[in-house]
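ENTRY TYPE: protein
WANTED: fold as tokens:
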Amino acid sequence: MISKEDIFHYTYAVLHNPAYRKKYELDLKREFPRLPLYDDFFAWSALGKQLMDLHINYETAALFDLKLVNPVAAPSPKERAGVRLFPTLEEPEPMFTKRPKLKVKLKADKESSTIELDEQTALTGVPTQAWNYKLGNRSALEWVLDQYKEKKPSDPTIAEKFNTYRFADYKEQVINLLKRVCTVSVETMRIVEELEKLEE
């Protein structure tokens, strides 16, 4: 017997099917979706349930193995070759001075599979599948980056009194969130490939 949940999961699967979305792209922009009835209803429904569980529980997804690098601290080619024998002497940093604020970047470089967070931190090893999972016109990873950017309100009173958000305060949480979203994106694309095989 088909339950309401089965129909809901089936619908979720169909709406993630790239062939369906491409075929009815213009119609989906103008009206409510109309769903085709594919042969193996329960296979579609099962994959839809997997997708839904993955998307609802993204906060508990496993951390993807992205490598955390510090591009600023990386030695130059001359330093790696041993040309620089003695480091230059510098005055010790005073104990109670205010440290300079790091420039927040929060940008994705798909070609190098890297996400730059700030001047000192980057994540590398982002798989291609993670970029391919789109929410609208951007990948899920790009949505996360956009949500955590520091934005200055145009109203001066709000900017002065209520604009307290600083990326540095949430940096560790953002790193973990990006790793989890990367896992969700890769798994979503794996399930989407299974949906494409079902339609063949």
The chain has a mean pLDDT of 85. The chain is about 45% helix and 10% strand.
